[in-house]
Structures are given as structure tokens and as C-alpha cells.
TrEMBL record:
PANTHER family from the UniProt entry: TBC1 DOMAIN FAMILY MEMBER 20, TBC1 DOMAIN FAMILY MEMBER 20/GTPASE
Signal peptide: none
Organism for this UniProt entry: Chelydra serpentina
Annotated compartments: Membrane
Protein name: TBC1 domain family member 20
Gene that encodes it: TBC1D20
Length: 411
């Protein structure tokens, strides 16, 4: 089978806005101060990379903190460290037999052909077609090497992000590690574990905003609107590649359940829009399915980190009704961390609260106690908002699974 290949010069294939440090500074920040902070962060990242051993905890902090890892060149160096992938031992190039008699090939081919909007606008057809062929090979090679994994529609949205940032060979290694850890629940033969992860969404919302939670429960909207967010790490629903890779920085540095916390903060951010809706499933589902493209991403990332610290998965598991916990990625994450010799992501996030240890401990004792009435919920709502603002200031320093998706979750 003759296939066109992408030219080796990968710089021409990346989106230029993700590569330059000379982006407009946020409102109210002088350009020289903004650039100075970026240069300091780059220096800190390179220092962590050159440490012996590599300071993975520092790299995690850099990936979580404002701006993430800044450029694709830096991501090429840091993402492998976050996933404990050795860049000198990459999977071999795929052979001609990879696509022969592969049960997933036709579905992968169809999905990849529909992925035009995931490539930089204006890219020559020859380059895009070559990248699509590489995308198919990456997916099939990971599945061939890991027969316990099952392909799902939307998986290609994650893989294409890695392909565009790091290239085919390294992307194959990173995606393979990601698929056997963070994404493993989505790649089970059934949707049971995916539905379990979605079950965390409403308890998080209930902890912060009981009024919004009760409204959504009354509307019987469920959580299916967030499915495509979760299983593509928002790659399918966000149009700006900068925002996608920024979220990938954050998710790669954190616990596997962090994407569901981020989904929750998006819903919480849109509280008034939701409450202004008709209280019925169709209206609320339609609103939440249309994700805004102008979200305050840094604020929401910080907020998701705060909520993970205040309401860790262990505190929410009872409400989420965890099923077959031994098969979920969250339950095996500690083993993954130990193998990577990396500190726990929630520990990284907690470092942001060290300067306010006494206040945080006092607040935490309130926030994690079982709530017995609605007044406690409302009081806590104000506390979490205050903590989110404080944490942001600190961070600134540094249904069943349908294979054909008849529900049209992916338009």
C-alpha cells in the first residue's frame, strides 16, 4: 500500500501560536513583566530537566502553573518525563502488515478521514494526508501491542494532539503509556468504568453549588453531555489548539480523574446560564453540549486543582458508587507513580497551600465533613470560591457505549 508521508520538517506543521513566547500579555500586566515571568519559567524548566535525577516534581508544577509548558519544543522534552517514557527506546517503525486483517482498521480509517479540523488551517493537503496516515499507524500499533485495549471513537482526537506536538515515533510511545494508564478505563470492552468516572461529576458540583446541582437533577440532564469532553480530553470540542495543549499539560501532570474535575468547573462557571434555562433535559443538555470557546482557562485550571484538593476522589467515591474499583485507572495510579519515581499530583497541588497551612487545615476540616443540611452547603460554597481566588494568586507565581455513536455525541 503506497502512502504519502509527512515531510520530516515538523516545525512547519505545528501551530505557530503554541511555539512563541511573544504572545500578548493578559490585561493589566506590563509586557516586560509578562515576558520576564515566561523567561524565568523556561529557565526553571530547563534546570529541572538537567537535574540528576530529573526533577519531575518541579516539571509537574511547571505544567500545572499558569501558562503550562509554554511551547511545543518544551513539551517534546517534558511530556516524556511526565509519563516516564524513555526517548532512547521508542517503538519500532510499523511494518506493512500492521493494517492487514486488523479488526479496527476500517473504523480508525473512517474516524481519521473525518478529522480534518484537527489539523492546522491552511496546511497543504499532502502534508495533512501524510499526517493522517501516521495517525492511523500510531493507533493501530498501540492496539496491536496492547490487545487488552479496545478502540473507541474519540481516541484519535487525543492521538492527533500528540502527533502534532511531538511527531510519530515519540507520539506512539507517549500514547501507549497514556492508554495503559490514564485512558485505560475508556478502552475497556464495556463502558462501565467510563460511566463510573462520569458519576463523579454531579457530586463535585453538589459540594460547591447545591442549587445548581439540584436544578440539574430536576432537569434530569444526566452527564452524557460531558462524555466527549472526558474521553477526548476536550480535544474534540475545543477549536483553538493552544487551549488543547494547555489542558494536556495540566492533565498529564495530574491524577487520571482531573479531567472530570475540569468538566465540573466548566459547568460551575456557567451556573447562571444553566439556571436561566428551562428546567428540562433537552434545554439544559443543549446548552451544556455547546462548550464556549472563550473560557478563562487559567482560572478554571486553578479552580479544578483547588477542588481536587478540597474534595479528593476518596471523599466522593461513596456518592459516585464506585464499581469494580480494581479495574479503574485511578486505583492503579499509585503503582504508576511509584514506577515513575514521581511524587503524587495531589501533593504537587497541595504545595500551593503551604503558606496558608493553618487556614487550609481549618477549612479542610469543614469541607470534608459529611454535610447534614443545606445551610452547611451554602456556607461552603463561599469558602471554596475564596480558596479558588487565593490559590490562583499563588499559582500565578510559578447510556451504553454505542460503537457507531447513534446518539451523535460527536457531530
Amino acid at each position: 500500500r503506497k502512502r504519502s508521508r509527512a515531510p520530516p520538517a515538523r516545525d512547519a506543521l505545528r501551530r505557530p501560536e503554541t511555539m512563541s513566547l511573544r504572545r500578548p500579555p493578559p490585561d493589566g500586566i506590563a509586557p516586560h513583566e509578562y515576558n520576564s515571568k515566561k523567561k524565568r519559567k523556561v529557565a526553571e524548566i530547563h534546570q529541572a530537566l538537567s537535574s540528576d535525577p530529573i526533577d519531575v516534581a518541579a516539571l509537574r508544577r511547571m505544567a500545572i502553573s499558569e501558562g503550562g509548558l509554554l511551547t511545543d519544543e518544551i513539551r517534546c522534552k517534558v511530556w516524556p518525563k511526565l509519563l516516564n517514557v524513555k526517548t532512547d527506546d521508542l517503538p519500532p517503525a510499523p511494518g506493512k502488515e500492521l493494517r492487514e486483517d486488523n479488526e479496527d482498521y476500517q473504523q480508525v480509517l473512517l474516524d481519521v478521514r473525518r478529522s480534518l479540523r484537527r489539523f492546522p488551517p491552511g496546511m497543504p493537503d499532502e502534508q495533512r494526508e501524510g499526517l493522517q496516515e501516521e495517525l492511523i499507524d500510531i493507533i493501530l500499533q498501540v492496539l496491536q501491542r496492547n490487545p487488552q485495549l479496545h478502540y473507541y471513537q474519540g481516541y484519535h482526537d487525543i492521538v492527533v494532539t500528540f502527533l502534532l506536538v511531538v511527531g510519530e515515533r515519540l507520539a506512539t510511545a507517549l500514547v501507549e503509556k497514556l492508554s495503559t494508564h490514564h485512558l485505560r478505563d475508556f478502552m475497556d470492552p464495556t463502558m462501565d468504568n467510563t460511566k463510573h468516572i462520569l458519576n463523579y461529576l454531579m457530586p463535585i458540583i453538589d459540594q460547591v453549588n447545591p442549587e445548581l446541582h439540584d436544578f440539574m437533577q430536576s432537569a434530569e440532564v444526566g452527564t452524557i453531555f460531558a462524555l466527549s469532553w472526558l474521553i477526548t480530553w476536550f480535544g474534540h470540542v475545543l477549536a483553538d489548539f493552544r487551549h488543547v495543549v494547555r489542558l494536556y499539560d495540566f492533565f498529564l501532570a495530574c491524577h487520571p480523574l482531573m479531567p472530570i474535575y475540569f468538566a465540573a468547573v466548566i459547568v460551575l462557571y456557567r451556573e447562571q446560564e444553566v439556571l436561566d434555562c428551562e428546567c428540562d433535559m433537552a434545554s439544559v443538555h443543549h446548552l451544556l453540549s455547546q462548550i464556549p470557546q472563550d473560557l478563562p482557562y487559567e482560572t478554571l485550571i486553578s479552580r479544578a486543582g483547588d477542588l481536587f484538593v478540597q474534595f479528593p476522589p476518596s471523599e466522593l467515591a461513596r456518592e459516585a458508587v464506585q464499581q469494580r474499583a480494581e479495574r479503574t485507572a485511578a486505583s492503579t495510579f499509585k503503582d504508576f507513580e511509584l514506577a515513575s519515581a514521581q511524587q503524587r499530583p495531589d501533593t504537587v497541588l497541595r504545595q500551593r497551600f503551604r503558606d496558608r497551612l493553618r487556614v487550609e487545615e481549618r477549612t479542610k476540616s469543614i469541607l470534608t465533613k459529611p454535610r447534614t443540611n443545606r445551610f452547611v452547603k451554602l456556607a461552603m460554597m463561599g469558602l471554596t470560591v475564596a480558596l479558588g481566588a487565593a490559590a490562583l494568586a499563588v499559582v500565578k507565581s510559578a447510556l451504553e457505549w454505542a460503537p457507531k455513536f447513534e446518539l451523535q455525541i460527536f457531530p
